[in-house]
Amino acid sequence: MRRVTGIGGIFFKAKDPKALAEWYRVHLGIEIEAWGGAAFPWASSDNPPGVGTTAWSPLAADTSYFEPSQAAFIVNYRVADLRALLAALRSEGCNVVDKIDESEFGNFGWVIDPEGNKAELWEPPAGQ
After folding, report:
1. How far apart are CA 6 and CA 4, in angstroms?
2. What residue intervals traverse the membrane (predicted)?
């Protein structure tokens, strides 16, 4: 079974997400979108039909999205089959969050690593 197939996004806490995003826009040239982050497309000269993006976004320092982790970041990993991977992780004794979110953006699940970091697992919609 294929497990992680890529990085879907990097999200991190910031005291002032808008100001920090603006700093990255001005100094590193990251194009900030209306939702407050950036999307890096996968299509390139090496991969012209590439579909999908890697998201990058500063979030409010008081976000509860990373809980129960105390880390200031969360990495979103693309996966091929979320439910199969979560079942495999459970059978391997991993700390899997007992929740799956389904939306037009795909299916999301989470696992807590041995150091307490929450990892987001994302199965994109078909065709992405």
Report:
1. 6
2. none
Give a yes or no: residue 38 inside a domain. Answer: yes
Query: Does the residue 16 lie in any domain?
Result: yes
Domains of the chain: total? 1
**pLDDT for 21-74, tens place per residue?**
999 999 888 999 999 999 888 776 655 676 778 999 999 999 999 999 999 999
Q: Is the pLDDT of residue 127 over 90?
A: no
Q: How many CB atoms lie within 10 A of CB 3?
A: 13
Closest listed residue to residue 83, CA positions, set 102, 55, 103, 105 = 102
Residue 36 sits in a domain whose CATH number is 3.10.180.10
Q: Domain range for residue 62? A: 4-42+51-123
Residue 20 located in a structural domain: yes
